[in-house]
Amino acid sequence: AYFGPLTGPYRRSLLDTWSGILRGFEIKTSEQMDLVATTGDPVQIQEWQLCGLPKDPLSTENAIILTNARTWPLLIDPQGQANAWIRNLHKNDNLQVCKASDEKFMKVVEGAIRIGLPCLLENVGDSLDPALEPVLLRNVFLIGSTPHIRVGDSAIPYDKRFKFYMTTKLPNPSYTPENIVTVSLLNFFITRSGLEDQLLGKTVEKERNDLEQEKQKLTRDCAEKSLELKKMQENILRMLEEAEGDILDQEELIDTLERSKLKSTEIKDDLRRARETEKTIDETRNKYRPHAYRGALLFFCVSELSMVDPMYQFSLQWFINLVLFAVDKTEQAEDIDTRVKNLTEYFTYSFYTNVCRSLFERHKLTFSFFLCTSILQQEGSLNGDEYRYLLTGPTGRGGNAANPAPEWLTKNSWNEIQFISA
Asked: Model's pTM, two decimal places?
């Protein structure tokens, strides 16, 4: 109801505030309130991630909200991540895709409603087409015993299997209150941790394809085994619930329960072995993480350029292609640590030269300074107080010591010296 449009830090802040209010009324709560832990299904989340959902908490929360919301979702998706996830999620369900700019997009929506197919409306602008209103409000009524919905001037059959998704590439759309109450607005703007995981996967897939393929296979196997185990547990509970009389007298039920127990133990052993193997693979993959970490930092640096000039827009796909190009062009090395160091240095250089080709001359120095300070901050080589002083100057009196050389050292200069040395 409230989280959808908000960023990750703001959501966390709200949860902490709500938790404090509940404790103030002496209402028992978890030590740390967590939407994913409370309402998420680990097996379902794993399946979403196999379909391309980023692994960061913000994206997982969005997916949970999307599946539980009472209104159709409108996804703020500048980088196209949510769009790709929806496409993969319904790739075997005959997903109907149309663009808001198409003159006849409502025909596609109507067809999906009639047959009960999922429908994805892309490139929504900063307002919603009035023709969508009955679909968004779900104004369903019965004609006889058949559900119908009025679209335009005609009433069409409404199949309850119909699902509707909308995505916009606008990073900060301004929808009217009338529009917002008819949809579930979800902020899928990419996070640094989500991008870092994605870049790590892309780099390892290019560098060590065998390793990444094995990682993906193990993830799929774990998801399938976890789902099988969950179904088995649900089946056992159903059988116990439906059993009549004394359970101990029902040999067929006891045999079924015993077989299920043995199968459950076997699946748990398979999962344990798979996760041990996955842990070993992750140790090797994580050796490339410094490169992915630098890559995420650089992407968010270049994203800030739109504040300098709105014309500076760089897509995520362009950036990923640059990462993969760097893997091909970087000098090889005998050990992984040296290879990762070479990768990071070459990619940083390649990124800088490619971006500078797109900048006006007057903006190159600004970008260079921002990039340099961001890297130094990442490495822990930049003193935060000194950096803030460089940007803002002294924000108060530095001290009360007497000026030792008032004949040539001005009052302001002496105050600045005291401030920076404090």
From this structure: 0.79
